[in-house]
Amino acid sequence: MLSINNLSVEFKVDSASKEKSILKAVRGVSLSIKQGETVAVVGESGAGKSQLFHALMGLLPDNGSAHGEVDFLGQSLLNQPAKVLNKIRGKDIGMIFQDPMTALNPYMKIGRQLTEVLQVHLGTNNKEAREAAIEMLDSVQIKDPADRFNSYPHELSGGMRQRVVIAMALLCKPKLIIADEPTTALDVTVQTGIIRLLRQIHKTQNTSIVLITHDLPLVAGLCDHVVVMYAGRVVETGTLEEIFFHAKHPYTQALLAATPHNDSNQQGRMQAIPGQPPDPMHLPSGCAFNPRCSFAEDNCFKEMPEEKTLSHTHHVVCHMGNHDGSEK
Amino acid sequence: MSLLSVENVSVVFNKGKKSQLTALNNVSFTLDKNEILGIVGESGCGKSTLARTILQLQQATSGKVNWKDSNIAEKNKKQQKELRKQIQLVFQDPLDALNPRMTVAQIIAEPLHNLMPQLSKKVVHEKAVEMLLSMGLQQEQQNRYPHEFSGGQCQRIGIARAMIVEPELLICDEPVSALDVSIQAQIINLLLDLKQQTAMSMIFISHDLSVVRHVCDRVLVLYKGEVVEVADAETLYINPQHPYTKKLLNAVPLADPVKERQRIENG
User: pLDDT by residue (tens digit) across B21-76?
Assistant: First the structure.
């Protein structure tokens, strides 16, 4: 359904010298998402995971540019004028952003914000739009939807607001939902409800979902496929089981080890990944993970590793593709 | 004698003319030397208000906070200042908590200027650099500004600033919730090492129960301003008593796909 081929995202940034320098946030990413798939894009901040999807939705700031090919249901998406994108954004592709307060217009009642989507995309009349919006609020488990329809965003709690944002993304029955850290700003007790809701939508409407996150436990609950990104590149892809139980890339393994597991005997020190994520302006030569990798060899500092295929779903980009993980 | 004891503290905010909001209701607990106490609960349960009350940034409506057996509200200005040296705070948003116009060395040294003005400039600078190094930062970085550092590094600077006066109690208000998983573990390890080296106590406020389990000796669960359960960390996690604690524990996502799927389906 969605195929991304060799997508790069660059930003022109100010630097010490007079000429603007180029920051490469995403460096040649290819991935494809089939109808009805749930895919997680996992990585640290600065890994380029959000920029990748902002680029294909045409949401890059003025100093950003994207190159490559993106195909959505046979239509090219990348660098299309807003006129073309506006027919797709919000209709076929719904987006859920991290912070529900900034995603909603604080001056507008949520009802108006919801019906607007239907009126713009489907030309629904006022009365029907109102009915559909209230029905949708009900289906995302907002109590008293008819009352809430007339609320302003600040009158709702964080979890409620995120449900409104999800309702808005769902109104036109999109084929693909891109959820960028949808639960990061929310309490633990609310998180589960949101994940459960997304899972239910996926099951009942066969919607494809892309979950962008740095939180592996969330992935475990929702997604079937996992894409791990590091410093603007995909380093490992696989099914949920392949990534959680048979991870081959040292970064994926370290990320799993650093995630608190909430088991017994989990007192004291945690397994940290040493060092910092690399500065995208000064990436290390060879494999970008080499300064933090405990398995790095000479080769890792010289050459960029090639992608290795381990099964038809499991791919890893590492020189040591055959080393056995210390974890699991 | 416990280091800190909070006795029946309530904090009530006036909301308009008629309504009141009880942020803390009759909260009591004690903290021993070299102990790490976790405070968990949802947003709005009063976690941060509790921290602010201990630090005297918020007055308790009733009840008292005792530091080494004397009520901190009754201390005079000089004693209050002395208390600042003994209780320090690490904030949630690492970049927000640092003055953008000061260099790292200045930021780390600032508490010394305020709390120990008798020290010479040279000693202050030496101490700041020493602190910088012990936090795993480089000496060359001392003249840089906060925006040149990543979130994890900023949090290290924030911790260095708190530790430079050698506090006996460090209050950490969500110290890792703004950080990436890989960096989160580094900061947790740093805090645990500091606790070992200096024998200080810590209050660790967090909504992430799996992190709290790693760090804390005892855990206090707050719900709508009331303490619903206090227990040893292991006891609380294995055998929670209060229904709210159970609900909270059940809401923690698990890093195991099979168990997590079951949790999502069943809950």
Answer: 899 999 999 999 999 999 998 888 888 899 999 988 889 999 999 999 889 888 88
Q: What is the ipTM of this complex?
A: 0.81
* pLDDT value of residue A264: 60
Architecture of the domain spanning A2-223: 3-Layer(aba) Sandwich (3.40)
Chain A positions with Cβ closer than 8 Å to B: 44-45, 158, 187-189, 191-192, 195-196, 199, 214-218, 220-222, 240-241, 244, 254-256, 258-262, 264, 266-274, 276-277
The mean predicted confidence, pLDDT, of chain A is 87
pTM of the model: 0.86
pLDDT band for position B138 (cuts 50, 70, 90): confident
Q: What is the pLDDT of residue A327?
A: 37
Q: A258: helix, coil or strand?
A: helix
What domains sit in chain B, N to C, each tagged with a CATH number? 4-265 (3.40.50.300)
Best A141, A189, A219, A264 member to test B by mutation, with max B CBs in 10 Å, is A189
Residue type, B101: R
**Long-range Cβ pairs for the range A134-138 (8 Å, 24+):** A136/A167, A136/A170, A136/A171, A137/A163, A137/A164, A137/A167
Domain boundaries, chain A: 2-223, 240-328
Alpha-carbon A4 to chain mean position: 14
Helix, strand, or coil here: A285?
A: coil
CB contact under 8 A, B181 and A189: no
